[in-house]
Amino acid sequence: MDTRNTSCTAAAPTQPSSYADLLRDLVRLLGGPEGGVDPAARTPPLFRRLTEDAVLAHEGAPLRSLYVVRSGSLKCVRTLGDGYEQVTALALPGDVLGFDGLHRGHHATTDVALEHATVYALPLSTLHDLRRRYPALDRAWHEALSRQLASASATADMLAAVTAEVRLARFVLWLSARSRELGWSPRRLRLSLCRRDLASLLGMAHETLSRSFSTLAQAGLLTVDNRELELLDVDEIQVRARTTRRPE
Amino acid sequence: MDTRNTSCTAAAPTQPSSYADLLRDLVRLLGGPEGGVDPAARTPPLFRRLTEDAVLAHEGAPLRSLYVVRSGSLKCVRTLGDGYEQVTALALPGDVLGFDGLHRGHHATTDVALEHATVYALPLSTLHDLRRRYPALDRAWHEALSRQLASASATADMLAAVTAEVRLARFVLWLSARSRELGWSPRRLRLSLCRRDLASLLGMAHETLSRSFSTLAQAGLLTVDNRELELLDVDEIQVRARTTRRPE
DNA sequence: CGTGATCTTGAAGGGGGTCAACTGGAGTGG
DNA sequence: CCACTCCAGTTGACCCCCTTCAAGATCACG
Question: d(Cα B218, Cα B67) in Å, to the nearest integer?
Fold first, then answer.
């Protein structure tokens, strides 16, 4: 299925106005310092706008570009043999998509927008060029990859927890930390994943996820209103997230 | 705690004889093409030799160098609040260690040698210098990071499986694939992790791991002799590894 | 041959996967 | 405006897998 016509527009109101702005924005997203980008560069990364459920990349498709999330969020999905959809990651602004497929030359996951989202598409040749031309961008890119690896480790950390409640507590804290880093509230969180997808990410049945939310809510640690979360007792959530064994 | 005196020696019989050899060896390990390295480079990566149980890096210690495993294997461990040791990765030759701590400036895990091992230590400044000087090394490094991210995803994949038996089947297949990539036998495998550590990596009790091994062995899919594995029916192991639901 | 660590096997109990039913909100068409 | 449908989310019931505790088996080493 071709996604170019369904989700990519050439111009948008929120798009950076000049190419220099665009590169600066990219470096900012990757966590680098302001400035240090030559406005006369010639190989622009593409700005792309995605609608909800738009597919940015297909699992197995040849990898030609890497992506940096600019706004909105996406889920990374791997379809297993029997049709089960395993969610492997939740991508937020600043996240790099597609990089884990670079060494094999094709996308490792299908990446789907969970809401209106914008991304920068970096063709591999452009990326190579930009990295050589702008040390600041290269350094920011390097650090962004480091965050990406740490993020994958964080996912593994959640999955490694013994009980479903602990896995959920770890996810909530992870999302809260990401939310803070993005300059949003670390207490009021909006889930862009539906229960089924979040349950898949956390390696449990969606019914179990529902029950775990209820348990944490009844303990007064947070409130749940559909996809709106409010953390009430972060300290106690941290205590539960640290649990490595079954409660006595 | 400083580990240099306990585990690093200046020279060893298997150490590359010249600096050009050393750089070529590094690019080879990272999966890059042969050649393309200037033998007159001035900032050498350090060759380090580790004895069993030697600690290469401590969780939380300031990150000054990244490491590339040259021979042997290491485990990456994170110590949780109550003293439980969570194994987060098994590092084999070609693997990059420490990179997930780059963006925070300190090591995310404690890295412990599981046997005699050798690594290249790349001080951050040296790495930066080498990458700018040698495009071949930069490209190899970039791809190695991609493999590293894919490896972290593979760990998450194992942990995401529903049952212990499926998690073990996925690990065995992962190890077999890595073994093939390293030019070793994909059927005869030697576990460098003890049961307890492997169980931690796979998110289960070590007793459950033991039972899962027994189950697969009694089904005739593999043989287990302490840490020696032989895969007898890879196809059927793959079938079990793909299972996403509980058997009827 | 003793001593401790590693690995395996047994038994019991609970957490969570599975199936099923119910609730509520969004979209549709009459 | 109101049935009707569909999907997301929640809750209940059943039962199996896995954790835990315990003991035995095997191996490494002094």
Answer: 40
